[in-house]
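Researcher: Before we compare anything, I want clean individual predictions. No alignment, no superposition, just each chain on its own. First chain goes here; please echo the sequence and then give the structure tokens.
Model: Echoing the first chain and its structure:
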Amino acid sequence: QVQLVESGGGLVQPGGSLRLSCAVSGTRLSIDRMYWYRQAPGKERELIATITEGGNTDYSDSVAGRFTISRDNAKNTVYLQMDSLKPEDTSVYYCVFGVRRGTAIYNRWGQGTQVTVSS
């Protein structure tokens, strides 16, 4: 069974940085796009970053210029470098992989990792 394992969350002060990682456990997959979402208590889940297999990226307005998504295709791993963090970035962050099965693509979600930005 495909399992995505996230790491790197925690508590950080405003203005600080964190780097999240998300890797596939146990198997090598063919992955199309990779994504990072986040969800704060009482709010809608938000797509914040996307990266294609070729490395093209897209960001939500809320994180553009502060966050950087990257991937290592050989390791089936996606990263999210978060700089200049703000209290409003406090959320549970989820990675999503678009896994290929023949001609179809199925989204697989990580378990989520908590990021708290507070002094």
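Researcher: Okay. Second chain, same rules.
Model: Second chain and its structure:
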Amino acid sequence: QVQLVESGGGLVQAGDSLRLSCAASGRTSSYDVMGWFRQAPGKEREFIAAISRDLGSTSYSDSLKGRFTISRDNAKNTVYLHMNTLKREDTAVYYCAAKGMQTNRFDYWGQGTQVTVSS
């Protein structure tokens, strides 16, 4: 099992920046990719970005690339999401997830952290 804990959410103003963190523990050798997702009220969960543990290869949602950046610190088993020029529509619960090496699916999820952007 892998446990994921997000932190760094909060209330910010439009135009601000914010960095979310996701710390992994447990069988951290069982995943090879970590990602960030978000879900706004009344909307489906949305993919934001993912990063591989080994090479640090990244992938992004086309609509968010440029404002959001994913990074990792393997020594700390932590993944970050750097969010710039936040907008009201970025208000959502942000989740990190880990993709199991055996299943190639995002099997492990954190509890989420709320980000609220006010105008």
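Researcher: What stands out in the second chain?
Model: The two ends are 40 Å apart (CA to CA). Additionally, The first strand starts at residue 2 and ends at 7.
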